[in-house]
């Protein structure tokens, strides 16, 4: 049985919870071009619009719930850890559905809707409500410098050292619900393979990097993930 597993999740795992994926929406994120709401340049050009956009996304989290895939991964993580192994969940998602599904150890490489930071003093904080261009930083009190802790295009993803270490040590790498279009996450399968891991893709359709996976199971994450978790825990 695999004892040391790295999971990479993407928007597809939250689709059945009612959160829209990116690449099914014609390059738009909730009707906005990504350059407008997911780049530092877009934020500089119109901070009011960008703050409002993330306030709406943050508020929308209250209307969705984890699905069977999130819950199955949380169970896998706790049962494998109880047997002395490890399951690291690396997610590109900025929602909190892995945690609300019960997962304890989740690395959000593209940031989190429910976190903010201050561009003046780099103070990071959990954040549940709205942020405006008038919100003062909780630490340095500067006004206008609090922004969502979301990794925008052109910015460096979070936790890369820990992710690289985990990829080099895992014996199984599983990619779930991601199109494989955005690097560096799209390259993780090759890193894991280079270090000798088995690789599995669970997705609705073959991803862009599908040829690098040893095995592919197509279907909705709400079906494929619980079935795969059952296999692993029984094996
Ligand atoms: N079950 C499994 N897979 C699904 C489901 C489902 N119910 N619904 C959709 N998918 C698959 C799609 O077929 C697609 O391959 O999930 C994938 C979603 O791909 P994207 O929308 O490109 O999302 P993701 O790969 O997470 O995007 C990566 O791009 O815009 C940036 O920063 C953003 O983190 C995001 C990154």
Task: Note the topology.
Blueprint: E1 4-9, H1 12-15, E2 28-29, E3 32-33, H2 34-37, H3 40-45, H4 47-60, H5 68-82, E4 86-91, H6 97-100, E5 106-108, E6 111-118, E7 124-126, E8 146-150, H7 160-169, E9 172-176, H8 188-194, E10 198-203, E11 215-218, H9 221-234
Parallel strand pairs: 1-4, 1-9, 4-5, 9-10, 10-11
Antiparallel strand pairs: 2-3, 6-7, 6-8
Helix pairs in contact: 5-9, 7-8
Bound molecules: adenosine-5-diphosphoribose.
Adenosine-5-diphosphoribose is lined by residues 10-12, 15-16, 21-23, 92, 110, 177-179, 181-182, 203-205, 207, 220-221.
3D structure, described in words:
With 235 residues, this protein is an alpha/beta fold. It folds into two domains: 4-19 and 66-110 and 157-234, Rossmann fold (3-Layer(aba) Sandwich); 21-63 and 113-150, SIR2/SIRT2 'Small Domain' (2-Layer Sandwich). The chain has nine helices and eleven strands. The strands form three sheets. A six-stranded parallel β-sheet has the order 5-4-1-9-10-11, sandwiched between helices. It has a three-stranded antiparallel β-sheet with strand order 7-6-8. It is globular, with a radius of gyration of 18 Å. Residues 10-12, 15-16, 21-23, 92, 110, 177-179, 181-182, 203-205, 207, 220-221 line the site of adenosine-5-diphosphoribose.
Quick rundown:
By secondary structure, the protein is α/β, with parallel strands linked by helices. The chain has helices at 12-15, 34-37, 40-45, 47-60, 68-82, 97-100, 160-169, 188-194, 221-234; strands at 4-9, 28-29, 32-33, 86-91, 106-108, 111-118, 124-126, 146-150, 172-176, 198-203, 215-218. The longest helix has 15 residues, at 68-82.
């Amino acid at each position: 049985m695999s004892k040391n597993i790295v999971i990479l999740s993407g928007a597809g795992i939250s689709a059945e919870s009612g959160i829209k994926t990116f690449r099914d929406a014609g390059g738009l994120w909730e009707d906005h071009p990504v350059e407008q709401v997911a780049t530092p340049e877009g934020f500089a050009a119109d901070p009011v619009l960008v703050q409002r956009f993330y306030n709406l996304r943050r508020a929308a989290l209250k209307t969705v719930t984890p699905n069977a895939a999130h819950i199955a991964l949380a169970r896998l993580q706790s049962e494998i850890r109880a047997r002395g192994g490890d399951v690291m969940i690396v997610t590109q998602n900025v929602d909190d559905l892995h945690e609300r599904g019960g997962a304890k150890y989740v690395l959000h490489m593209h940031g989190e809707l429910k976190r903010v930071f201050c561009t003046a003093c780099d103070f990071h904080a959990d954040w549940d409500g709205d942020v405006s261009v008038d919100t003062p930083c909780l630490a340095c009190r500067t006004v206008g410098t609090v922004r969502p802790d979301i990794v925008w295009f052109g910015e460096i993803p979070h936790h890369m050292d820990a992710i690289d270490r985990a990829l080099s040590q895992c014996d199984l790498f599983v990619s779930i619900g991601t199109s494989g279009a955005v690097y560096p996450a799209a390259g993780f399968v090759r890193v894991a393979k280079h270090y000798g891991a088995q690789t599995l893709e669970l997705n609705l359709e073959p991803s862009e990097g599908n040829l690098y996976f040893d095995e592919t199971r197509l279907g909705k994450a709400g079906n494929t993930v619980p079935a795969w978790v059952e296999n692993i825990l029984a094996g």
